[in-house]
## 1
Amino acid sequence: MMDGILDLQKKALEELDTIHDRNGLETFRIAYLGKKGLVTTWMKKLSALAPERRPEAGRLANQVKMNVTRCYEEAKERIALQKEKVESFLDVTLPGRRFARGSVHPITKVTQEICRIFVKMGFRIVEGPEVEWDYYNFEALNIPKDHPARDMQDTFYVSDNVVLRTHTSPMEVRVMESQTPPVRIIAPGKVYRRDSDVTHTPMFHQVEGLLVDKGISFSDLKGTLTSFVHQMFGYETALRFRPSFFPFTEPSAEVDIRCVICKGKGCRTCSNTGWLEILGSGMNDPAIYKFVGYDPEVYSGFAFGMGIERVAMLKYGIDDIQLFYKNDMRFLRQF
Ligand code: DAH
C-alpha cells in the first residue's frame, strides 16, 4: 500500500513535466488533486488500514499530497511565465519600421540659396505682408490708378484700397520709408495673381532686392546680378541685360541667361531664342524717392525682382509649375 502512494507520486510528477498549457494543467488538477482525484481517493482508503499503521501511512500520504500540490503550483507558474514570454517576444532580426522623413521643399531650398548668395554680398533679409495696401503695391511704385498692371484680371482685390500683393516690390517702399541709406535688402515671399497654366499659379514666390547709397550706378547693378547668376547657375552661364520698362525703374533691364536646356542652340523652352528671362531690374526711378523722402540728388540705387518658381524650374529642368504644389512625393523626394 505504501508503494502504491509512491508510485502515484512518481506518475503524477512525470505527467506534470509533459504539461505545457493551462488546459492540460487543469485536467491534471482534477485527475489528481480534485475531490474525486487519485490522491484524494487514495487518502480516503487510509481508514481501511489497521489502526497501528495509520499514523505512518497518513504522514506519507500527506507528504505526497503536499509534493504533488507544490509541483502543480510550480508548473502553473512555469506555464504563466512561458505565455508572457511568447506574448512579449521581440524578434531583433525583423527589419525595423522606417520613419518617413520629410525633406525641404524645392521652393524653400531655392529661396534659401538665393538669400544665401545675397547675404554673402551684404544684403539683409526682410519680410512683409501679403495682404497689402494699394499704396505700397502700386501707388508709391509709380503705378497710377489707370495703369494696365492693375487690371482686375491680374490683381486679387480685397477691397478698393487693399490687394493681395502682386509682387514683392512694395517691400522696397516699406524699407525705404523706415530707414535712411545705405539700404541693402532682399525680400523673399509669396505673391498673388489671377493666372493659372503650366507656367503660372495664382500664388507664387518672388525675391525682391534693393540697394540704395551714394554714388550707385548701373555698373553696380550689372556686377551684382552677374555675380548672382554665376553663383546660382554656374560660372560658365552666359547672361545678357536687355532693355525693358518698369514704372519704378529708369533705366530698366531684364536679365536673360543662356538657355539651360539647349545651351543657346534654340529649343521649345527658350522659344528658339537661345535665351531665358530670369529677372527684372533697373535703377530706382527718382519718382519713387519722392514717396519715401529720399533726395535723388544725393542718393541713387538699383532694384531687382525675380520669380523663385521660374529660377527653380530652370535650375532643375522642371517644365510644369503645378508640380511644386501637388505634393506628389515622387516629385518632392528628388530634391
Ligand atoms: N515687380 C516686378 C514684377 O513682378 C519685377 C521687378 C522688375 C522688380 C524690376 C524690380 C525691378 O525690383 O527693378 O514683374
## 2
Amino acid sequence: MLQIDVVTLFPRMFDAVTTSGVTGRALERRLYDLVLWNPRDFAVNAYRAIDDRPYGGGPGMVMMPEPLEKAIGAARQRQKSTGVVKPRVVHLTPQGRLLDNALVVELTQEQGLVMLAGRYEGVDERLAGRVFDDEVSIGDYVLSGGELAAMVVMDAVVRQLPGALGDAESASQDSFVNGLLDHPHYTRPESYEGAMVPPVLLSGNHAQITKWRLKQALGRTWQRRPDLLAKRSLSAAESVLLEEFKKEGS
Ligand code: ADE
C-alpha cells in the first residue's frame, strides 16, 4: 500500500481529499495511507516557534529548518516501520519542477511519499540539501501554502493506483496519457438548445467512434496546446486525421 505522509501546519485542510471523491474512496479501501504531521509539535524553542524573520530583511517569515527536519524524520521513521525502504521526500514550492503526467507516473511508482507543504515566504534553504529528493511546483503562480499543491499531487497519484477508479473509469484513458488533450464528451439529451450530438457517436460503429475521438483529441490539442504536439511525434494515421480535422474546420 502506498504510504503518504504530509508535513503541514494545517492538517485539517486534508479533510478535503480524505472525505470525498476518488481519494476518499481509495482511502476507505486502504489503497493508500495518509498520515499528517504538524511541525508545531516539533518546535524546539520555548515559544514553540516554527518561523522567524528572514536574515537580510524583507517581508514575511521563513520556516525554521529544525522543526521541519524533525517532522520529516518522524514521517520517514513511520514509513520505515510499514516497510517502505526509501520514501521520496518532496517539497511543494513554486520554485520546483513543474508537475506533469510523467512526474505523476514516476511518483505513483514509489512505495512512499513524504511531502512538505510550506507556508509563509518559504523554508530555510539549508533544509533543501539535507532532506528533499524533489522540489515540485503545480504551476507558475503562488499559493498561500503548499497544502493545495500536496493535495493536487495526492489526487493525481491516487487515481493512478490500481482499483482507485471504478470499472467504467480508467486512468489509462485520461487526457495526457498519450500526450494529447481529451476528446469532447456528450450525454443525453440528443438535442440540447438546438445543438446536436455528433451523429457518429450515435452510430454504434465503435471503430468509427474511436477514430473520431482520436481526431478530435488531435485537433483540440493542435488548437489549444500546440506545445504538447511539438513534444510528440505523430504517426502517419494521426497526421491524416489531424489534416482532416483542419480541413473540416471544426
Ligand atoms: N506553494 C505555493 N505555491 C505553490 C505552487 N505553485 N506549487 C507548489 N507549491 C506551492
## 3
Amino acid sequence: MMKTDFDAIVIGAGFGGVYALHKLRNELGLTVRVFEKGGGVGGTWYWNRYPGAMSDVDGHVYKYSFDKELLQDWEWSTRYASQAENLAYLHAVVERHNLIGDIQFDTEIESAAYDERRAAWTVADSRGARFTARYLVTALGPHSSRNFPDIAGLDRFEGTVVHTGAWPDGLSIAGRRVGVIGTGSTGTQFVCAAAQTTAHLTVFQRTPQYVVPSGDRAVAAEEVAAIRAGYDGIWEQIHDSRVGCGFAESDVPAMSVSAEERHRVFQEAWDAGNGFHFMFGTFGDIAVDPDANAAAADFIRAKIREIVRDPETARRLTPTELFAKRPVCNQGYYESFNRDNVRLVSLRETPVVEAVPRGLLTADGAEHDLDVLVFATGFDAIVGGYRRMTIRGRAGLDLAARWKDGARSYLGVSVSGFPNLFLVFGPHSPFSNLLPSIETQVDWITELIAAAEGSGRTSVEATRAAEDAWVSTCEQASAQTLLPRVQSWIFGGNAPGERRTTLFYFPGLGPFRAKLREVAAAGYQGYSFD
Ligand code: NAP
C-alpha cells in the first residue's frame, strides 16, 4: 500500500522545496514527501522556459552555498546562468543527494488542514488523495501564480496565446509575428531574445521600465578558478550583505559627491552591468533619497535618448516615475527598438480595445497582426500560491481569511494560528537574491523542527505578538524607502483583488540573519512550543 503518513510534507520542488527535502530527510532523518504540481523539479525554472529566460544575479551566486563539492565541480562559461543551466544545476543537486525518490510529481495540493488533537497536518491533492504529516513546509514559489489580464474577445484570436510562466516545450517563435504584453524582468528579457529571431515583434508596454545592461559575457577559466578558490569568502560576504548578490553595496550618499563623480560611478556600473549593482552598488541611497534616485533615473533616461534612434520611440520608452521597482537588467533591450522588425506600442497612449481573429486592435484603430501573443504580465507574487489553496490552522482558521487585509508572517516563515506550518519565502522575507534567502530560511525551519523534536514538544508556532512586531518592523523599514511610491508586484496590488501591502523585509539578508541569531539566542523568542 502507498505510504500516506510522513514526518514532514513539503509542497513544491523548486529551489526551496528541494533543499527542504535534503535538510529534513538527510540531516534530521525525518520521513519526507515532496508534492510538486509540475512534471519535474525546478519550480520557476521548470515553468519559465520562454526565450531569453535566465537569472539576472551572477550565476556563481545563484547557487546553494551548502554543497561545496558541487560548487567546485560545476562548470560555467557565461556570467549569468540560463534557465536550462539553472535547471541542470538543480537536477545535479537532486541526483547528488538522492532526492528524486521522495518527490511526487504531477500532484497539485489543494488543501491542508491542521488537526489540533493529533498535532498533524492533512493535505489533499486535486484527485482527492490525502496525506498526513506532523510538519508542513510550503515552498510554493514567489512567482508561481500567473497574472492574465482580461482582454475582450481573446477567445476570437486565432493565433497562439501563451504566458511566459508556462512556456510550452516546442513552441517556436522564429520567423513568426509575435506580440508581447509586459515589460518587467521577464518581458524585457523576452524582447531581447525575440527581437533576434521573430519576423516581427510588437511590444505592448504599459509602464516604461528603467533597464540597465546586464553585462553578460563569457567567463574565462581563470575567473572560474578564482571564484572556486574564493567561495567561502564570497558566501560570507553575501550572508552579511543586504541584497546578497555578491558585490559590495555602497554606503556613499549620491549627493555627497560631485556631479562628475556621480556620472563616472554610474557610467562604470552601466559598463560593468547588473541591475541590483546599479541600484545598490553605485550609491547607498538610490532607493531611499529622492535626489539620489533622480540622479540615477536621469542617467538612465539620457542613455535611452542616446541609444534609441527614433525620438518618438525613445520618448515612449522613457520612464517618468521614480526608479524604484525591482531593478531590471539584460543585454540590448533599448537597442532592440532600433531594429526594423520591432515596434513599440504604448498602452497608456493607445490601449488595447479588443482581440480580433488576426491579433489585437488598439485605440488608434491599428490592428496588430500576430501569430503568437505572449503574456509577460507577471504573477500574483508571494501570496498567489497560498490563495490557490485552502489552508486551515487552529480551530479551522482559514489562511486566506487571516490574510484578507494583507499577508502576515513572523520572519517570512511562520504564521500565528498555524502550528508546524513553515513557509519558504513567505511574505516579509528579505528583499535579496533569492537563493541565499531561501537557504537561510530552510536552515531556520530545520533548526526549529530540530528544537521541537529535541524537546519532545509536538508543535511550534509563532505568537501573535511576534508576528505583529515583525510585520510592523517590515512596514517601518519599507516606509523609509522610495519603493512603495511606485506600483509593482513587490507591494502586491498587481493582481486582481489583491491589496497593496508590504511584502518584504527591506533591510535585507544580513540584518535578517542577525535577527534569526538573536531570536535563537533568546530561546526562539516569538515562538511557542507546545
Ligand atoms: P512584473 O515585473 O510584474 O512585470 C509585469 C509586466 O506586465 C509589467 O510591465 C506590467 O506593467 C505588465 N502588465 C501587467 N498587467 C498588465 C495589463 N493588464 N496590461 C498591460 N500590461 C500589464 O513581472 P515579471 O516581469 O514576470 O517579473 C516578476 C519578477 O520575477 C521580477 O521582478 C523578478 O523578481 C522575477 N524575475 C526574475 C528574472 C531574472 O532575471 N532573475 C527574470 C524574470 C522574472 P506595469 O508596470 O504597468 O504594471
## 4
Amino acid sequence: MDRIKIVGGHKLEGVIPISGAKNAALPLMIASLLTGDRLTLKNVPNLADVNLLARILRNHGVDHSIEGKRASPTPHLGETFHLTARDIVDTTAPYEMVSRMRASFWVLGPILARMGQARVSLPGGCAIGTRPVDLHLTGLKALGAEIDIDGGYVVAKAAHGRLRGGRVVFPKVSVGATHNVLLAAALAKGETVIENAAREPEIGDVANCLVKMGAHIEGIGTSTLRIQGRDSLEGAVHTVLPDRIETGTFAFAVAATGGNVLLEGARAGLLETALAALEQTGAVVTQEADGIRVRRNGSGVDPITIETQPFPGFPTDLQAQLMALMATARGTSVIRETIFENRFMHVQELARLGADIQLHGDTATIRGVKHLKGAPVMATDLRASVSLVIAGLVADGETTVNRVYHLDRGFERLEEKLSRCGARIERISAG
Ligand code: EPZ
C-alpha cells in the first residue's frame, strides 16, 4: 500500500489549481442514466471514486469515453467525459459495487424513473457513521415507488410502470436523498416539489445540468425545488463546478503552515462560511480575478468555536481539516460535529502528532499546542486523511500517512499540488 511521507515546517507559496468537484461529478455522471443521448461533462477530476463510478455505470449500460489522452498537458483543466446510456442493460446495482462507494446508491432514482424498476444494494454503514437511506426511500415512495427490502437490496417498482410527481418534505437535510429524488423527478410524470432540500452547491450544479437536458426546475439553490418531469431528456454539455472542499482544504493548509497561495479557479461564493472561519483564525483571504488568495504571515493562529451544518453552514467535509489547523492555535477551540455521529477518527491520529484534543459526544475541545511532532499515522477516511496531511505539513520532522488510498478517492494529485508550493511531501509506492 502506498504511503505519503511529509517533512513538516515549510511554508506554502505559489499557485494551486482547484479541480472539479468530486461530489458534483459523481451525481452528474449518474444523471447520464436519464437519457439515451450523450451527456458530456467537462472538468471531471481524475479520482478513484470517479473511475469506480464509471465502472459501475458501465455495468448498467453506460458507454463511457474520455476525450483525448488521460495524461492531458493541462491536467488542472480536468477531463472531458462522454457518457451515453442508450439502453439500460441491467437495473441491478450489486453489493460489491455499492458497498465500495455510497454515492452509487444514487443510481436508484434515475434507473427507477427510466425503467420503472430498479434493484440496488443497501450501502451499509461506513467509517463516519451509520448513514441510513430512509430519506431516499420515503422520497421515492412519494413519487409512487413501491419498495421492498429483500436480501440486502432495495427492490423498487414504479406503480403503473412510471413514477409520477409528488410532494416530498424531508424531515432532515440530506444531500444524497435530495440528489436521488431530484434525478428521479426529472423523468417522473408531472410536478414534484421537494421541501427542505439540501442546498449544497453540488445539488445546484446537478439541477442546472438537468435543465440543460430539458427538465424544468424552479428554486435552484433554495430549499424548495419544483421540478416538472419530462417524458424524455436530451443530451447536454456541462462543466463541473470547482471543488469547494478541496479549496477549503488547501486554504486551511496555507493558514496552518503560513505562506501565500493563490487557489486558482476557486470560487469564494461556494464556501463563504469556511472562509469567514479562516479569517477569524487570522488568515487573510482575498477574492482575485482568477481565484482566491490565502495568506498568513508570522502571526499565530487564533482559536475558534464552530459547529458543522448543512450548506450554507460550515461543512462537515472540512471539520477534520479545521481541527488540524486548530491543533497549533493560541488558545482553546471548540468544534461540534452535527452531521455525522462518528466523524472524529482523525482525533486519535492527530494526538499521535502531539495535538491536545478532548472528545465529549459530538464536541471536540482542542487546546492549541506550540508544536506538533511528526509520527506515522493512519488514514481512516477521505477528509480525516487530508487533515493528517495538513498536520504533517506543520509538524516538526517526518510524518508518514498510511492507507493513502483514502486520499486518492477525493484529492487529485495532492502531493504534486503541495510540493509545487514548497511542501516537502512525496508518495512512497508499495512497489
Ligand atoms: C454527502 O453524503 C457527501 N457525499 C458527503 O461527503 C458529505 O459529508 C455529506 O453529503 C454531508 O454534506 C457525496 O456528495 C458523495 P447526507 P450523503 O445524506 O449524501 C442522515 C466526502 O467526504 N441521513 O447529506 O451520504 C445521515 O446519516 C463525503 O466527500 C439520514 O438520516 O450525506 C447524516 O447524518 C463524505 N437518512 C445526514 O443525514 C438518509 O436517508 C446527512 O447525510 C440519508 C441521510
